[in-house]
Amino acid sequence: MTGGSVDGARLDHLVVAARTLDEGRAWLEGRLGVTMQPGGEHPQFGTHNALLSLGEGAYLEVIAVNPAAPAPPRPRWFGLDTPEMQQRLAAGPALIHWVAAVPDLPPAPDVLELSRGDFRWKLTVPADGSLPAGGVQPSQIVWETPPPVTRLPDSGIRLLHLRLGTPQPDALRELLTRLNFAGEVEVYEAPQPELSAQLQTERGPVLL
């Protein structure tokens, strides 16, 4: 994966969702042959996560609703509250989204100031909590502290390729061009939004 320029966007992290954090961790650890690292809680959205370095400033996140947290005052991010997502995750954890790091995010209704522990960041989150373009359009993030990947041990896992299928491929390509995105991303036409990531592991390539 190539890195973004100082004035452009780059991959920050991939988002895998699961019904429970334990289920998501076990699924990824079984497929990738490595141990996920502890993440933490997101008090604004009632979720928690675990993390895995992908090298080159990127990481993988598995996220789930935190049953011990109070319900948030707004819909949870990544569509986690929707019946569609809950039905999807009933079949097992899934890669649902990706996040691009950008140089700046001007104030806007969908730009939120968020935190987890001593991490601070800005992120685009639709008011209804939906996945942008069904998950293929990246959320945009600006880290105000060093990002989590700076504290993660190198897992040896690397992203080889990210594929994004959408009924509107030209619109997605135009967005990535406007963001000056640098990375190994393939955009193609598909009847419904879909995304997949090929990861290199010690066992060989693994497709999520």
From TrEMBL:
This is VOC family protein. Residues 11-179 form the Glyoxalase-like domain. InterPro entries: Glyas_Bleomycin-R_OHBP_Dase, Glyoxalase-like_dom.
